[in-house]
Request: fold
Amino acid sequence: MSAPQSQGLPNGPVEPVGPDGAAETVVSKTKIKKVLIANRGEIAVRVATTLRAMGIRSVAVYSEADASAAHVRACDEAVCIGPPAPRESYLVVDKILAAAKATGADAIHPGYGFLSENAAFAEAVSAAGLTWIGPPPSAIVAMGSKIASREKMIAANVPVVPGYNAEEGQDLRSLTAAARRIGFPVLVKATAGGGGKGMRSVQSEDEFAENVALAQREALAAFGDGTVYLEKLLVRPRHVEIQIFGDRFGNVVHLGERECSIQRRHQKVYEESPSPVLSERLRRAMGLAAVRAGEAVDYVGAGTVEFMLVGHGEEASFFFLEMNTRLQVEHPVTELVTGLDLVRLQVEVAKGRSLTELLGALPVRDEHGVDPAVPLRGHAIEVRLYAEDPQNGFMPSTGTLLRYRLPHQPGVRLDTGFAEGDEVSVFYDPMLAKLIAYGDTREHATRRLVGALERWEVLGVTTNLELLREIGVHPAFIRGETHTGFIAEHWPDGFVAQAPPELAWLALAVEGLVPSKGGHAAGSASGPGTGKPDPVATWRRVGAAFGGVR
Amino acid sequence: MSGVFRIGGLGGHEAKVSAERVTGPVNDAGVELLVHVGHGAGERATEVLVSRDPDDTLVFRFPDGRVERAVVVRDGKRRWVVAGGRVHLATEVVQKKGQVDLNPSLEAPMPGKVARVLVKVGDRVTKGQTLITVEAMKMEHALKSPKDGVVELLTAVEGALVAPGTPLVKVGDLPAEVAQ
Reply:
């Protein structure tokens, strides 16, 4: 195999070529035969699925609350690592390493969340002689602090959101002076965190002091670090992120963008690729910025560079927001428009294979930008189903998934960590599933998505399914007018479901007065009225209801 | 089933429902019922013939010829109602000594810790006002007042660990003479 010839400007580091033209492996190939997945829920199921397809054995770790969880059933082996609370199980490095040793795993995949961006864990994994399926600890550290990553990006010529990195101090006076310099409105953000915690938007100076104190306190509680920094609050920005991939030979490429503008309290709800507004020119430019960001930290593996995009068309400008040194929740939309299995790529890169070997000749960059490493085709939209109660401030909800199924349909993929009958508990993130629809065009993908949302049968916990449906049919969404204030704009008073139909009240009134039919229930020892649950009768009843009452 | 149900959580929709058999020959086609649904001030009575499909789906046949279907699944104190193509969660409003408790306590929704108690007994509060915050799953959740009223009962203590269902605060009606 010959290495790509660079023409004109260098295409970044080139794979070394030996004297006979064959690629010389500078990095020796690592064997990976058994991977321990240091995570739970849908991502653990996801990783296990790819490992099985690659013929690699998988090891699950689980807490006592997850003993019969989907991810345990999805893996070849499983080790219990403690009580339900994450800090007593999934976050305990020693227990995970012990489980790897006990099962003879030779690599660890950290998923997302939990220890995936914990540099100390990454180092401990390598120190234990295991292969870490992720970026080098130095990259994790460099991008882990929002302040440090902003500074690194400025040095790498990647545009950043105008802001203040607290270099003159965390005291109120310095922060206030900086806020005045940036110009209100500003965003106060936690340097150690994400997910909206420790974040406060401040419209004017008179609210500034109070909000800084609130943000610092929340950041200290959530991340153990109350340091905050400031950013200019952008007007109707779009959240557009670029998927990058690096190998151990120094090659860094990008795989296009994902737009994740529709969020509720900084929690992503809808994601899609490609973005409805990105031109090819802008994609190449953002792609190059993202690749430069990855090169600045010698990135290896899957990573995401998040940007804020403001303005339209030729006036659009983008600013670096942060870099996530892990596989992201919404990676499936990229998989569907590129045809790639990103988890498989992660494992192959960890084994020491080059991106040239895996993806073919890598695109050449010029001073304006660089193409995605593979062509993007079609359109994919993902929605996240959460076990939460929209009518109760979106509080997490718990219960048994009495009914939880999606009739199979073409162009629709479901990534979930639950099966019908499973218990949804309080200990972990309330995300139940990701539903991803793919189509030739955005319109096609949207129609498939809405169709699937209509047919999704979820009963036993309250969810945000109604909100997901309403967004999918909203004229502004269909026109692609997505921005981070979308939900706040179209549901200013919060999400209130329509009033229940009169039929619902009638049903509640008559239910106990109409004798149950069917062999199981009538006069039997279980079923309605006897106080003993009859699961089979329940399934049949509920199943027909979804089919019959639409 | 007669009683008062709430659909859609605190601040959702509430109705008093009851049904009685209409006297007449017992029909093979189902049970003839007169159903009363009372929302706030008004009450509606509906005559309907109700039967069950073999899979226990409730089938409603109205005098005007309409036929509709619904399902009710009991889940402990909860009732999941599938009607109109949507799922509704109904909870029975607990009856106390024959009287309906129209001011149920706000309960801790999940295991957590009381972070902040922002009111005291006797405080006048407005609908939507945050009364207590509970820290759970690394976030602060606000418990908001379901209506305009007065804080009647406060058992929440800052820093206390709470189990789900623990009553924390109760908002009663504004005294009649000062109600706006």
Notes: Chain A has 18 helices and 23 strands. The radius of gyration of chain A is 25 Å. Chain A touches chain B through 61 residues (CB under 8 Å). The longest helix of chain A spans residues 280-296.
